[in-house]
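re: that chain from earlier
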Amino acid sequence: MSRGPAPHQARSVARLAAVQALYQMEVSGAGAEAVVREFVDHRFDNDLEDQRLAPADEAYFADIVRGAVSGQAAIDHAIARRLAQGWRLERIDATLRAILRAGAFELMDRADAPTEVVIDEYVEIAKSFFEGPEPGFVNAALDGIAQDERK
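^ sequence. v structure.
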């Protein structure tokens, strides 16, 4: 008897989708509710390049997107504290900003999400988009945010 996807796999899909949604919002100017609705109505449970996507934890996805948007000022401040001197968040690639914002939101506002899992998942997401130093940067930045926020 199949019990469906493992909860951690559904959260992994939710995290990746949240990064994609935050990126889409930044480049298109769309609001959080419109993007959440688009993903829930049209993207989840669909095929991508003839591959069936694993089911997402849609509630977790929506929580990350809404939380990253509503808490963006505090999240951006937490990220900025971990940037090299002279760097501004606006100078970072939009995809990398989306990864950092989603990860920082979870570290700051989702006590039920284990620190190591959050960091590892967003490092893996970064690896799927970048081949250079960015995954290491995500690891260091999120680890620093975790130290700042989860004392």
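The first helix runs from residue 7 to 28.
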